[in-house]
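Q: I have two molecules that I believe assemble together. Could you output structure tokens for the complex as a whole instead of separate predictions?
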Amino acid sequence: MNRTKTVTPVLPTAGRAGSPQPRRRLPGADHAWASRLLNDRNALLLGLILLAGFVMSLLSPYFLRVDNLLAMTQYGAVLGLLALGQTLVILGGGGGIDLSVGSTMSLSGVVFGLTAVSLGLDPWIAVLVAVVAGVLLGAVNGLLVTVVGVPPLIATLGTLYLYASAALVLAGGVDINGFDRSGFAQLGQSAIAGIPTQVLLILLPAYGVLAFVMHRSRFGREVYQVGSNQLAASLTGVRVARVRTSLYCISGGLAGLASVVMASWLLNAKPTAGTGMELQAITIAVLGGTAITGGVGRVSGTFLALTLVVVLNSGLQLAGVSNTWQIGLLGAVLIASILLQHLLGRARR
Amino acid sequence: MTTPVLEAHGITKRFGATIALSGVDLVVHPGERVAIMGENGAGKSTLMKIFAGVYAPDQGMMRLQGEPFAPTAPAAALAAGVSTVYQEPAVFGHLSVQENLHIGRQPRRRFGSIDRGQVAQQSVALLESLGLPGAMARRRMDSLSLAEQQQVLIARTVADQAKVLILDEPTSILTDAEADELFRIVDQLSAAGTAVLYITHRFDELHRVAERFVVLRDGALVGEIREPDREQLLAMMGGGEGTSKLEQAQEAGSPTSHEVNQDGPAPTRTEQRPASDTEVVLELDGLSVDGLFDDVNLQVRSGQVVGLYGLVGAGRTEVALTVFGNLRPTSGRMLLHGKPYTPRSSADALRAGVAYLPEDRKIQGLFSHMEVGSNLSAAALRTLTRWGLVRRGEESALVRRWSERLRIKAAGPDAPITSLSGGNQQKVLLARAVSTEPRLLMLDEPTRGIDVATKGEIHRDIHDLTTAGMAVLVISSELPDLLALADVVHVLHEGAMTATFHRSDATPDRVLRAAMGVAA
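A: Yes, here they are, computed for all two components at once.
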């Protein structure tokens, strides 16, 4: 419509396809940093992380010790992989969501266990098998959504149950133990220069690759296009179904990778390893600024949100706050961060 | 003189640092029909939204029938008697017409349940009082055409006992015949005492819709006149700065005037047109898609503009979508550069050198969360990619080149696309299509809802592109525009081609008759 002339002056931004939120200049704030702080969700998250870190260091004297800070990140690796996949699926729009990531992780974990223990194959081959299994499970979701036309919420709710029970059936209802091959446990239990191996060698590289792909590649651009306006995307030559299916495959593959990290950490494959993790993954994606309607958000936001959640969880643990409070706090942070952004947004108008 | 139904004094509205309206006065009497005119961004819509309770003015006061009027929300304005019908009908598609007519004020039975019998009865009576078919009442809202939906919304304002009816570019989605029906209804309402405020960009309909013409420019009232004198209105809207805008507007509005360039008189189009010696880029041979259109035959040559005219629903857009690979022909064939052409997707079409500017800017065109640059480069992205990565240097060069060439007014390539005016958004989409350097360019309603000056610019751009050898297929509901642009006009009526006119023998009357299926 020609009359909806938004009189929004624009900040000169760094021109990334991955930063599509329109920003408004603060009246009276000429410093770019001042408006950034209030306009940029990443800056908000960073502020919250610092605040949480400060509070936690008051609650527990151990919190700020380097070894603790590094150990903390260990807990984030599995959740981080799932949240990154979730972010991509949601970014792709069309109501995209992957409720099955937790079950996908459980099932690929069992596949991993069976390959490595029951078949006795080399654990590194089993890693590959687990990731491929994850991709295939993701492909089922993607095809259900794009080819059959099942709404994502329903399709992945269905596979959530299917994959969960398949994991239990395959594992015979018990944990698969017996990973003690040399080298493999290194992944989940060792550290390089104090940084847990699964963070350094899996989570950070995965994040780096995804951030690069989303910012620089044509595929990344197409994800934002599809998420922003699928009709317009298809009319500019984007193969919408293919892009969306790929996103589910990536999410599944990352869940497969997460299952390997989990197994190498606990040295067993639990058929219920991922139960409940899908909702945490969604929470982190949304906390990171991914619009649930798609097209808006950045993987860096998800990464910061993950950091915030990890700081809160481990800080509370150190301070001896009961587990039951931690989940509640996550919910509170999610709502508070959205409220804060709304209030700041309103104050500026 | 009667009491004015609506008075506004010193209305001022700011958005951040931008002043959208400054000290606007307007007095409207019952039954008066007032056209509000101005270019995009002149403040027309803002003023209407203040009347409608969407925005509160920063300064100024309003009276409705002599009483102070300061609506705090659209519902308050509606209750007070100010109704608005927006450009695109906002309806409850899954409900019936009669339910839509009664949303929010259903007649109740004793225990609070809805009295359906009365709903039906009142609806039929209401529709028939406006000369509309009463049988419409039972149909589902989304089974209606846009024109019919608009009629239902206007009927609703009658039920609301609107004293002031605001129509925001109501004819931009209508064909000429449908617009005539709208004018009839508006006349009837105005005769019954409803004041009508009317926003339009179409000069040809001015004398039909209003007896008073109020012009806004840059948020301020420029003045008003009582005769729809095109020259005078354009001068008021454009601010009299130079004549270029005026000339462009003339070119846009009138099929007979010659194209005038700022740099000096350009040759007239008829002189310049290669008649039939250039290469045939697209040929449709008995092309049909079941249920949409049947046996369409046409050729588009390099350097030629071919127009496709027809009422909404005649199958024009569907023809373009078939050529663009989004619909499968059920019979007939397409030839591109003389070779069989069977695109299976937009991607295929783009690769073959066919580009398409879709008809609905917002729904089919814009990536509203993204920036100007990534919106512009979207269709050409394929050619800017290497090893799967977007080559940013080439991308920004392409964006810069086309922004300059089409004179897109934006804060920069990183500005959100939503920060642009509608006309500039449309230019970005045009740039998106032409930046793929297509051999065949299909433009679906390229100037819908765009201010006069931008419309003239877009016409000039299309002309430049064809001079450079592009083949262009233009679909438009605005007959003067189409006649000004096209060398050949094909007319579709209910999916069938009813006539073909050459530039010399295409008169509005003959084209319209063919479009309505009336023998010439």
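A: One point stands out. Chain B is about 35% helix and 25% strand.
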